[in-house]
Amino acid sequence: MMQTARLAMKFLGGLGLAVALSMAGGAHAQTQKKSHKSATVKKVAAPKPATRKVAAQKPRKQVASAVDGGRPSMGEKLGLRGSDAALDLNSSVALVVDQQTHEVLLRKNENAVLPIASLTKLMTGLLVVDAKLPMDEPITITEADVDTLKGSRSRLAVGTTLSRGELMHLALMSSENRAAHALGRTFPGGLSTFVTLMNAKAGELGMNDTRYVEPTGLSSDNRSSAKDLAILASAAYERPMLRDLSTSPSHQVELGHRTVQFNNSNRLVHNPDWAIGLQKTGYISEAGRCLVMQASVAGRQVIMVFLDAAGKAARLGDAERVRRWVEHRTQALAQFAPAATH
User: Fold this and answer.
1) How far is CA 72 from the centre of its chain?
2) How far, in whole angstroms, is CA 53 from its chain's centroid?
């Protein structure tokens, strides 16, 4: 407990340091912004040329409404999505931290408390791993695991029996909601005890902006900040099982008389340009598209948190922008360092 507290205090202390963005990266991002706005306007306003100038003022709200079902996210309601930010990030909230030095490389609304969708499952997995429960124990999906909040679908039919380890795999890799709910429901003491422990663990780690009400993330009452989620990602990364299962590209399970393949919800795990050590995606309409990752970029161990991006590819686009910027920035600093010694 003392060691965890010291880790949290060290991590939070590092979050006070901000690093100025390079002018070249900012100029490149502004060029991307203009190009993105122009393309969006042509697509939306083509039938009414006279309104093009008006539509160009708020392209992202139109994209979010078209892509994510027309419901504004909480971040959009709070006016966070349109706030100025370096690199022209689509996400309403972003935080990029050097995991080893705790240096903040980039921040945007990092203290905003928003719904976190399936990023919740990182805490679910953390509790199950730390409880050292038998991973080969069979667990059966019941009616209690069916989503009544959002009506989401699942390939795990009621009556399906899998091991706890397989349910962990599907929850972390494919964001399987019934798998995550079953993990919480079958925890010693039941679901209510599990949720209580989720909040206790958050407090232990120093995640003071965080609140959980259930283990899947389907409830918009599961909320946190980018600052807290960076702490959670750092703690989860210390558990090898969470690293392995969350970054697994795919996994096959036997469901009755058929073999079903589940794939990772984050396509960046297939990208050879990325070295991802831990990841979790999330989406509900109130939360927008969310992503938390630990990755090695230009020799640095980096934690990235993106909340409330508009559109399916937006959070991944933000991650790509950040990766390229960190690479460019690291190379520039490396070139400057020898000259500074003369």
Assistant:
1) 19
2) 34
Q: Is the pTM of this model over 0.90?
A: no
CATH of domain 2-340: 3.40.710.10
Whole-number pLDDT of residue 87: 86
Which residues are within 8 A (CB) of 62 and not within 5 positions of it... i.e. 6 or more apart? 40, 44, 55
Please name the amino acid found at residue 201.
Answer: K
C-alpha distances in Å from residue 276, one per residue of 118, 243, 244, 270: 18, 9, 10, 10
CA-based nearest residue to 306, from 14, 96, 29: 96
Q: What angle do CA 238, 243, 247 make, to 5 degrees?
A: 160
Q: Could you report the per-residue pLDDT of 280-310, keeping only the tens digit for each?
A: 999 999 999 999 999 999 999 999 999 999 9
Residue 75, helix vs strand vs coil? helix
Q: What is the pLDDT of residue 330?
A: 87
CB-based contact 11:207 (threshold 8 Å): no
- What is the rounded CA–CA span in Å between residue 282 and residue 292? 9
240-290 pLDDT per residue, tens: 999 999 999 999 999 989 999 999 999 999 999 999 999 999 999 999 999
3-state secondary structure of 103: coil
Catalytic residue positions, numbered: 118, 121, 175
Contacts of 74 by beta carbon, 8 Å cutoff, 6+ apart = 114, 115, 220, 286, 287, 308
Distances (CA, A) of 248 to 118, 135, 162, 168, 262: 17, 17, 18, 12, 10
